[in-house]
Write a structure and sequence with these properties.
By secondary structure, the chain is mainly alpha-helical. The protein contains ten helices and two strands, in the order ααααββαααααα.
Length: about 250
């Protein structure tokens, strides 16, 4: 059996989902690896079953569960006589799913960690100040307040930047979805492409992004572009090169 040479990606929200069986998490990772080539996975249950030494029915239940959880989308391609030609499994990465679960940006988990860290820092400093105060009867240190404000400011700034990037990503993906709907295509970015686009978008100034997105939307909507995803990455690369050139000058 030929096995893919691509790496798999299993985000934290899948790894730590207690509703999923261990093999369902492994299957999700396998689907991401098989999606790298076309942006979707076409492997059948006959392929997955011997891979995990289970029946095709078991694989079917795993896929149904991942779909129910919203981690994948399944599309069946049928011939004119309604027979199944191909099954395509997409890793969910559009709309709300993207903004809350972008690969490498699991902010929901990160926020709770940040809060715990902040609470521990505050508790430790407060305890230290109380001990110091009781032993020397001096004025309590303001270190606790300073660290607390620093953590809050840093977190607020990070959240604001990410919300801005999410909004920009949705704008670009909306253009791609309209392209698919208008011209009867089914193009979707791979996980690697999503990470690539997000990183480059975060590097652009707001004005440069607005200019780029307008031109991109106009060209894609007029069907001047055959591959809007590859074209978007090229545009972002060119825009970043121009920005760096002017900064160096």
């Amino acid at each position: 059996m030929n096995q893919p040479s691509y790496y798999s990606i299993t985000p934290a929200y899948v790894r730590y989902d207690k509703d999923l069986k261990p093999n369902e998490k492994l299957l999700y990772g396998e689907i991401t690896a098989l999606s790298n080539k076309f942006g979707y996975c076409t492997a059948s249950n006959n392929y997955f079953a011997p891979l995990y030494d289970v029946s095709k029915e078991t694989v079917s239940r795993w896929i149904s569960h991942l779909k129910k959880k919203g981690y994948i989308q399944v599309k069946v391609i049928r011939a004119a006589d309604k027979t199944v030609q191909q099954r395509r499994i997409y890793v969910s990465a559009e709309g709300e799913v993207l903004t809350k679960r972008s690969i490498g940006y699991c902010r929901k988990d990160q926020d709770s960690i940040d809060e715990n860290v902040k609470e521990n820092i505050t508790r430790d400093i407060t305890t230290s100040n109380n001990i110091s105060s009781s032993s020397s009867h001096s004025t309590p240190s303001r270190q606790n307040e300073t660290v607390d404000n620093s953590v809050n400011n840093s977190k607020d700034q990070s959240d604001e930047e990410e919300a801005k990037t999410n909004s920009k990503m949705n704008k670009l993906l909306f253009t791609i979805r309209n392209f698919n709907k208008t011209f009867n295509h089914d193009l979707r970015p791979t996980l690697r492409q999503l990470k690539q686009i997000r990183l480059k978008v975060s590097m652009l100034s707001d004005d440069d992004f607005e200019d780029l997105s307008k031109v991109y939307d106009q060209r894609v909507s007029a069907y001047l572009v055959n591959n809007p995803i590859g074209y978007l990455i090229t545009m972002l690369n060119d825009e970043i090169k121009i920005e760096r050139h002017y900064k160096n000058d």
